[in-house]
Task: inverse folding
């Protein structure tokens, strides 16, 4: 079988050095890679590095070997075009359809999925001009991964870092796998919001009421949505997992924090998935000092109060066309309980799984039934959490299509 063909476009940013590592990962895992650095990229990392690491000659100019029409040749044969780092200038040129160097020419000839991995200073990323360019590219079907938050060039830090090469490689691998299977980037241009993990409700500065949720299913939903082209906001409660490359990650602790973060992020989202295990109750009072045991005395009982039902609130407030998905873990009468919960919460889809016997919490696998408001029922056999995540996105896309919105 032919190797999958990747064109790696490199923009002129300091993060070009990280693209070398991405290139290595791609070639070592059996991809045929052609690198197109911009002129400014070559000021950071030179041509010999790109050709040695890719094992292919590096085209940098439309004028080189013009008889081969390089932009058309490279573009037509590509299974994936990934641009890392994508600078503010490169995003602007791509958004306006400029064709003033080999990379932007190639961008106009490719018909395969295109992934942009922007990297720049926070001010440039947040500038309205860049925001509009990114929105334009996403609307046209490109996958623009959000930059990571962290240390930038120099002493400052903020949003704008290129995600780590391993994580970018995973995004490329997933997008290529969908392409090979003939599956479209059917969430391109869509914004999805996912909650993950388990909330913690503090009793005092050192103790909390919590639960066993690992966050794995929510993170799998984030990774798979990204690979289908979505812009992803992940509201993560106390999960010790690596950030999915390209997602905006909002960290929260309590149910009340999660309610605020979800309400804000969901206002204009196309789909919202509540995969987090939210504590139904919290201690009525939180002690500012550590609660001490007292010799010879029984401990005080802990009074609890109800937390808001975030899923029910989001369902009630959802804008027209937004698909809201909930989860339910049940121990018995799973489908009947699920139907009741679907109606009570008012969401569009409810993913019901049976808990116990090593299922669900903390494991790598899951099995579930996806219940739909209005009657549909899709069983998903036991398998990796990413497989269930993809079936959930299939159901979300179907529902949006049925409403004439995808
Ligand atoms: N959920 C929520 N806010 C809460 C509790 C739960 O948004 N305060 C969401 C969960 O994220 C999940 C769904 O609701 O998507 C189902 O949660 P579950 O705890 O199973 O439902 P409950 O309403 O608590 O029902 P019960 O305790 O009766 O099983």
Result:
């Amino acid at each position: 079988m032919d190797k999958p063909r990747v064109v790696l476009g490199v923009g002129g940013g300091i993060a070009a050095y990280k693209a070398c590592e991405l290139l290595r990962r791609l070639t070592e895992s059996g991809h045929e890679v052609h690198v197109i650095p911009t002129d400014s990229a070559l000021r950071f990392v030179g041509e010999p590095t790109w050709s040695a690491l890719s094992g292919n000659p590096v085209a940098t100019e439309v004028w080189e070997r013009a008889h081969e029409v390089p932009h058309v040749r490279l573009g037509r044969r590509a299974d994936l075009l990934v641009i890392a780092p994508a600078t503010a200038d490169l995003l602007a040129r791509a958004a306006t359809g400029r064709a003033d160097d080999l990379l932007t020419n190639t961008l106009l000839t490719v018909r395969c999925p295109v992934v942009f991995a922007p990297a720049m200073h926070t001010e440039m990323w947040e500038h309205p001009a860049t925001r509009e360019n990114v929105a334009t590219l996403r609307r046209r079907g490109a996958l623009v991964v959000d930059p990571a938050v962290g240390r930038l060039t120099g002493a400052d830090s903020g949003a704008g870092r290129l995600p780590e090469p391993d994580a970018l490689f995973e995004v490329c691998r997933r997008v290529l796998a969908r392409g090979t299977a003939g599956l479209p980037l059917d969430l391109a241009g869509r914004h999805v919001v996912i909650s993950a993990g388990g909330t913690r409700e503090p009793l005092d500065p050192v103790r909390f009421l919590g639960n066993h949720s690992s966050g794995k299913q929510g993170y799998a939903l984030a990774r798979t949505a990204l690979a289908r082209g979505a812009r992803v906001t992940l509201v993560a409660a106390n999960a010790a997992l690596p950030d999915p490359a390209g997602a905006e990650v909002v960290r929260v602790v309590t149910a009340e924090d999660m309610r605020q973060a979800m309400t804000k992020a969901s206002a204009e989202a196309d789909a919202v998935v509540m995969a987090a295990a939210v504590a139904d109750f919290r201690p009525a009072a939180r002690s500012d000092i550590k609660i001490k045991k007292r010799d010879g005395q029984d401990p005080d009982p802990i009074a609890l109060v109800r937390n808001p039902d975030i899923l029910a609130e989001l369902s009630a407030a959802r804008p027209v066309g937004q698909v809201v998905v909930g989860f339910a873990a049940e121990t018995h009468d799973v489908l009947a309980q699920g139907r009741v919960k679907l109606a009570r919460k008012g969401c569009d889809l409810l993913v019901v799984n049976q808990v116990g016997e090593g299922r669900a919490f903390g494991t790598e696998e899951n099995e579930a039934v996806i219940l739909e408001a209005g009657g549909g029922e899709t069983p998903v056999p036991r398998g990796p959490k990413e497989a269930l995540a993809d079936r959930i996105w299939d159901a979300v896309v179907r529902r949006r299509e049925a409403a004439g919105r995808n």
Remarks:
- The pocket of cytidine-5'-triphosphate is lined by residues 255, 274, 276, 278, 280, 307, 309-311, 326-329 (CB under 6 Å).
- The mean pLDDT is 93.
